Amino acid sequence: MDKQKILLVEDEPFLAKVIEDSLIQKNYHVQYANDGKKGYNLFLNGGIDLLILDVMLPNVDGFTLAKQIRKVDKHTPILFLTAKTATTDLIEGYNSGGNDYLKKPFSLDELFLRVEQLLRRNGKMQSTELTEITIGEYQ
Fold it and tell me: Is the pTM of this model over 0.85?
């Protein structure tokens, strides 16, 4: 199975690089955009298994980007990463089409866990190949 493709849309360069490098080390293919408009164009190229969106982005904010994506794709999971921590922001994130919402600062381990869970729920997680073992008449 091919690597899962994650689209990361984050305007803070250092954080984006840390996330991108960490996901690559976890064997994901990562595409990166530093604003919402570029992120949408990359998404339209197809093949994205998961989106990680910052909320406060130049040109098109993350909530608006999620709404635009949901008009053409109802199923690809969206994980918001944001410094916006108010309950109203969380609600807006889910209402705009997000599947999960991770507040900054966050640990990379928590990010990996959420990415894996979203891919698994969407049927996109790489499955491990099962080996059949026969012992006598038992398999």
Answer: yes
